[in-house]
Specification:
Growth Hormone, Chain: A; two-stranded antiparallel ribbon; 2 domains; mainly alpha
């Protein structure tokens, strides 16, 4: 019988390596977000309490260093600061991991080292004594894995095939969102039903699955990512004008990052005390709320793409800067959801629906801001410093997460209404700064330059 199937042209196929990288990243995000969904609650409700905290190796010295810089901390404030430092350094170490891979060990070896470190770190989280070691291993592992696996995705495609590379990164991003969605659901359920250590142990198993997936597809992956020849010419005056404008945008974006990332830090503590724990007879694991952020990101992408296409046909699609500003206002509105909910609660716990709406604001606002910000930097940064500016973009998250750790320490000293109102104001400040300085920044970025992309 004659087959009716027709082989797809080679130019439309994706390399086999893409699927191994995507599934590796999905397992890694599964484990990372599963662990992060538990981390603050674990610190506040167990590991930092008497009977446990004195067993953590090196913690007395570590706490004295933190309090020497930030002042005395309660258990919740200390947990917030530790989370901020951890989440911040997760975005800082990939620069170091990329440097080590480029100069010495290659991307394949770096990813394997990163996966081993993260698997060990998740496992170490299950024991009181190794809590700080676990965080160190996770930060180190993320540094080796996060940037280098993304670099390998790009290296699978020839430089002339930008369209197929873009589609490849889209598939890769879908894997990230999938892992981010399911990780908190399963780890949160296991932690609630069987204990914290089972949840962390599951995260370790997920990361080992990612390592096994990566090693299985090892032969399809580039050992080293080819680099363009380094340009030695100095930046022109126009280039510097563009760089300064991009730094201004990144600085403004920190306001939204602070208003957004509190969803993973203080919100679980807030939900534990102020959100109804049950719907009917079903008890809602608090870590499940962390799955709502990637959920809204997944379901909103096609809606936003359709909206932007419709706006573009009418000549009204917002500019990149306008989208970043809109994202800031949406995140501000998301924080106001919690303010309104507490005002209407009459001192009772608020309905879980308000948590869903809060995360809708976080997820949709993030889509308006962060991917647009990366695209803006990639498109406009001078070619001689394009990769450097992308690294600076991630450093803005390092700064933002450290700030949310510090601000989260004020939660116990404020009412929930005041705390979330403050975050709404922080997000709105980012939107207002785009309105005030957007025209000036746009003029600088639209300057024609032979070295700008």
């Amino acid at each position: 019988m004659t087959s009716l199937s027709v082989a797809a042209p080679a130019s439309t196929r994706h390399p086999k390596g893409l699927f191994f990288l995507a599934f590796t990243e999905a397992w890694e995000r599964f484990s990372y977000y599963g662990m992060v969904a538990l981390l603050v609650l674990y610190m506040v409700n167990q590991i930092l309490l008497p009977g446990h905290v004195e067993h953590i190796a090196g913690f007395a010295t570590f706490r004295s260093l933190i309090e020497g810089v930030f002042g005395p901390k309660s258990t919740q404030a200390l947990a917030s600061q530790i989370f901020g430092l951890y989440a911040g350094f997760v975005y800082f170490t990939p620069m170091l991991g990329g440097l080590i891979a480029d100069r010495w060990i290659g991307q394949r070896n770096a990813v394997v080292i990163g996966a081993i470190c993260m698997s060990t770190g998740h496992l170490a989280m299950a024991y009181d004594q190794s809590f700080l070691l676990a965080l160190l291993l996770l930060v180190t592992g993320s540094g080796f894995l996060k940037g280098n696996i993304s670099a390998q995705v790009g290296a699978l495609y020839p430089r002339s095939d930008e369209a197929r590379r873009a589609r490849g990164f889209t598939l890769f991003s879908m894997a990230i969102n999938g892992g981010s969605f399911f990780g908190p659901l399963l780890c949160g359920y296991l932690a609630q039903e069987f204990g914290w250590h089972v949840g962390f142990g599951a995260a370790s198993i997920f990361m080992l699955c990612g390592l096994a997936t990566y090693l299985y597809g090892y032969r399809y992956l580039p050992a080293r990512v080819e680099k363009l020849a380094v340009e030695t010419e100095t930046l022109s005056a126009t280039d510097w004008r563009i760089v300064r404008a991009l730094i201004a945008v990144l600085a403004i974006s920190i306001f939204q990052s602070v208003a957004y990332y509190q969803c993973a830090n203080v919100f679980p503590v807030f939900a534990d005390a102020h959100v109804q724990a049950t719907i009917g007879s079903f008890h809602i694991p608090i870590p499940w709320y962390q799955s709502l952020d990637p959920f809204w990101s997944i379901v909103s992408v096609p809606v936003l793409f359709a909206l932007w296409r419709s706006q573009a046909t009418r000549g009204g699609e917002p500019s990149d800067l306008s989208k970043i500003g809109i994202g800031a206002w949406i995140v501000a509105a998301g924080n106001l959801v919690l303010v309104v909910a507490m005002m209407l609660s009459g001192g009772e716990r608020i309905h879980p629906l308000f948590g869903v709406l809060y995360f809708a604001g976080m997820g949709i606002g993030f889509l308006y801001q962060w991917p647009t910000l990366l695209a803006l930097v990639s498109r406009t940064a001078p070619s001689k410093v394009n990769a450097t500016m992308m690294g600076v973009a991630f450093l803005s998250l390092f700064i933002g997460n450290n700030i949310i750790g510090w601000i989260g320490g004020f939660y116990e000293k404020m009412t929930p209404i005041a705390f979330w109102s403050m975050h709404a104001a922080i997000g709105a400040t980012g939107g207002a700064l785009i309105l005030i300085f957007g025209g000036q920044i746009n003029r600088a970025l639209s300057t024609t330059s032979s070295t700008a992309r």
